Amino acid sequence: MEAMTSQQNTTPEGDVSAEQRQAGAIERMFSSVGEPVLEIWGILTGIARMFGLTFFYLVRGKKRWSAVFEQFYEIGNRSVIFIMFTLGFLGMILIYQASYQAMKITGDLQLLGALFMQLLWREFAPTITALMLATRVGTGMAAQIGSMVVTEQVDALKMCAAQPVEYLVVPRFIASTIMTVVLTIFAVLVAYMAGAITANISFNVNYLTFFNFKFVGWFDLIIGLTKAFFYGMTIPVVACYAGFEVHGGSAGVGRATTQSVVIASLAVVILDFLISGIGFVYLIAFAK
């Protein structure tokens, strides 16, 4: 009798604990799904807010041209060697692989230079250049601003009635937008010359044959420069946003630099898809 009574007393408690465990598992499942979604939403809204403030102070704020020219040097001049080696070697690799495959299939390399120039303008030069700038320039911006946040220099700017976005972001925004376009043009020249040398040495392609621009039209130039323009606007905004969101001391600065590279690289890839898709839609409509 006592055993039955104890069993009746313990069974509901066991059922309740099982229900609680099940409810806790469901709650953890939804939180594991919802937390990343909310985090991504917060990042997107923060970047959009940073874009809005940057454009506002770009139009209404005071331009610090000395800081802009300083960023010209940091973003442009100090990236020339990096871009030259990266695009040069990638141009040589791409031409060698394309020439090798073409020799196995057709044996005709007369249109190699024309197709390579079209590829450089449409896709290769602006996108690779932007990804390289996101790694070198974006991390530097995020680390600089993150260090200022940690050392309370940003708070000091606010106390002096200076807007941090106007003072720190706008000069980087202007310089990055312009220098990304300039570096893209430089990347096209470097990659094309490296490809021409590779084709001549490895496959005896005459330079006059390689320097063929028959497939490059106004559309290719517009698409390439438009990509470079939007890439140049996106990288500093993303990097500065990551820097302003730093918390937790020096460890937070490290997280901000990583976040800057990841988000800026994803933004470049997504913009590449969108601009290419919109461009080709309008090209088809114009052709009709």
Describe the structure.
- The termini are far apart.
- Residues 1-8 and 10-16 have low confidence and may be disordered.
- The protein has 288 residues and is mainly alpha-helical.
- The longest helix is centred in the N-terminal third of the chain and has 59 residues, at 2-60.
- The protein has helices at residues 2-60, 65-76, 80-105, 112-150, 153-159, 164-203, 207-210, 218-244, 250-287.
- 88% of the residues lie in helices and 0% in strands.
The largest pleated sheet is described as:
none
Terminal-residue CA separation: 91 Å
Overall geometric form: globular
Global mean pLDDT:
86
Per DSSP, what share of the residues sits in E-state strands of 2 or more residues?
under 5%
How many helices in DSSP terms? 9
Percent in helix: over 70%
Q: What's the number of extended β-strand segments? A: 0
- Enumerate the spans where pLDDT stays under 50 for 5 or more consecutive residues: 1-8, 10-16
| Rg result | 27 Å
Write the layout of secondary structure elements.
Layout: H1 2-60, H2 65-76, H3 80-105, H4 112-150, H5 153-159, H6 164-203, H7 207-210, H8 218-244, H9 250-287
Helix pairs in contact: 1-6, 1-8, 2-6, 3-4, 3-6, 4-6, 4-8, 4-9, 6-8, 8-9
